[in-house]
Amino acid sequence: MNIASLVVRAKPEHFGALEELYRGIPGAEVHARCVDSGHLVVTVEDGEGYSTADSILAVTMAKHALSVTLAYEYTDEGLELQELQEA
Hints:
The chain has helices spanning about 15-25, 50-60, 80-85, and strands at about 1-10, 30-35, 40-45, 65-75. By secondary structure, the chain is of the alpha+beta class. The chain has a four-stranded antiparallel beta sheet with strand order 2-3-1-4, covered by helices on one side.
């Protein structure tokens, strides 16, 4: 499992268009918006047939996204190996 949380900066008048576009990106979901600061909070989760990196790139390249900041990232890949080494 891979999950990333992104903060997208955009003009509030473009929030609707961005949210619609983001709904079409696999694993992407808009969780919050702040019109006063011009920020959207978007999470991206991987799934079968697509990666978190691909979805993050799609969020970043979206028309009207002025900037995107990676706020949080989690992966459980490699945890099995780590647990084996610790045993």
